[in-house]
Amino acid sequence: MNTIYTSVRNLVRTIVTNGYSTAGPPTAAEKEDIERTIRILMAIPFAVKSHLRAEWGAAWALGNDVAENGVVAFNPDYASLLPEGLVGHEDEGLGLPFQLTFFVDGFVKRGVERGWFNAPGASQMQAQLNSLTDAYGKMETIKLTPIPVAHLIHQKQVLALFGCVLPFGMVDDMGWWTIPMVSLVIFTLYGIEGIGSQLEDPFGYDRNDIKMDAIVGDAKTEIEVVLTEWRRLMASLEVPPTDQNIDDSPVSNGRQEEKGDKFVPPDMFLTNRARRS
Prior knowledge:
Helix content is 60%, strand content 2%. By secondary structure, the protein is mostly helical. It has 2 domains: 2-146 and 202-238, no CATH class; 149-198. A two-stranded antiparallel ribbon has the order 1-2. Helix 1 packs antiparallel against helix 5 (119-144). The chain starts with a helix and ends in a 13-residue tail after the last strand.
């Protein structure tokens, strides 16, 4: 999950800092495309979590129309991040996390055509997207690879047999101490066996499972802050400059900056203060 979160972070950072051309600020349609893609990236951790937990009703309000191996868990926050008109194909075997990567891949292609990303930058974004997909596949493999039933049966039989034979090998030397010592040994071995069974599916709702809800919630909160700041920056570019905020300094906080004929946007996360001449 950490690899997925890191890839999403890197993609969001690259998009918001490089999503413009030197000809001028993004158009309304381009800004909508950027925000749509960032929201899709926010949705990917939700999609991975829901897919691993078989929460098929998380993105769409399916009601009770969910198979017995699924969970009805509609999440409006998750559903609001998905592209409008999205049709899921999870009932046909296509995972929604993989489906969402097609939208991000298409955005990278459009960004290259618009002149936002050069070839090395687009290649790095593709590498991040590939790392995300690879991590999702590995988590899916863990989910779909349970401990073999034959192994579980044999393991319990061997532990039971060992627990029956062990007292006879210790009683001559330890006497009555054999009872607490054998109990401690068997308790330890069965505890290890139980831990192995718990680790078989670490993506569930148990207290000792991976805190999927907390990780996904933190990712959404963090990226929402970045998206809000990007919106503020885009809104500042639409405000016509005044005499108070124009000077010859290299950074014009919250304003469009021009170097020759090239458009250079201001940096994010800076306080927009009026400048005096």
